[in-house]
Design a protein that fits this description.
Elements (H helix, E strand, L loop, with lengths): L4 H13 L9 E8 L11 E6 L10 E4 L2 H9 L4 E3 L1 H8 L2 H10 L2 E5 L3 H12 L7 E3 L5 H9 L1 E6 L4 E8 L4 H18 L7 E8 L5 E2 L3
Parallel strand pairs: 3-4, 3-5, 5-6
Antiparallel strand pairs: 1-8, 1-9, 2-7, 9-10
Length: about 220
């Protein structure tokens, strides 16, 4: 376990106490800063998807690049958007519209044989946002992949030695939020060259609340 369970629970509980009453359901966020992490070295950059044990508390929007049978299956599986080659090419020629669309979706999936095409058309927009699509092989269960993405968050540490990610919503239980926090910290531990020693600090907070430090 990456951090003392009781300390994680205590921090989550305190963060919820400091949330204050709002007229909306606040998100719960985890902020982690790192030490001795040279991001000029490509191998030290962290881009990782984490499937939270209890999801994010809200459904992440998923778009699929596909045609034919896979496109039909993706629609049946409840994909929020399905785009074929024609629509992808149109987006590639309209960067403003493409940027707006890409920002609206958390994750993208793409039919394997369409990956190069998507890369040519939308790579310059998807890449810098850390949203290049996950390839979907012909035999994959698209419904399962979409459901997995809906419970997933992306860690993106490429320019600053800081990770800021969603770990749930304040209506979730303290135990659920603690599980999600630990899943993120475990992933970071596995990706850092020196493990937990490179975590300088970790804080949990609600959208409008004060941050509470977690002893990692």
């Amino acid at each position: 376990m990456p951090a003392d369970r009781e300390k994680v629970l205590e921090a989550v509980k305190r963060a919820k106490e400091l949330a204050g009453k709002r007229n909306f359901t606040q998100s719960v966020e985890l902020m982690v800063s790192f030490r001795d992490l040279d991001l000029n070295r490509v191998e030290n950059r962290i881009v990782a998807d984490v499937r939270l044990p209890h999801g994010t508390g809200k459904s992440q929007k998923v778009a699929v690049f596909a045609e034919g049978e896979l496109a039909a299956n993706a629609r049946d599986a409840g994909a929020d958007l399905v785009l074929g080659r024609k629509e992808i090419e149109e987006l590639g020629g309209d960067r403003k519209r493409a940027k707006k669309l890409v920002d609206q979706y958390a994750f993208f999936l793409a039919q394997v044989d369409m990956m190069p095409f998507v890369g040519r058309q939308l790579g310059p927009i998807l890449g810098p946002r850390g949203k290049m699509p996950k390839p979907v092989p012909p035999t994959a269960d698209i419904k399962s992949l979409i459901e997995s993405c809906r419970a997933m968050i992306r860690i993106n540490v490429r320019t600053q030695p800081v990770a800021h990610v969603l770990v749930g919503r304040e209506r979730m239980s303290e135990e659920e939020l603690a599980d999600n926090v630990e899943a993120v910290i475990s992933t970071l531990e596995s990706r850092l060259p020196k493990g937990l020693k490179q975590i300088k600090s970790a804080y949990v907070k609600t959208t409008m609340g004060k941050p509470v430090r977690i002893e990692v």
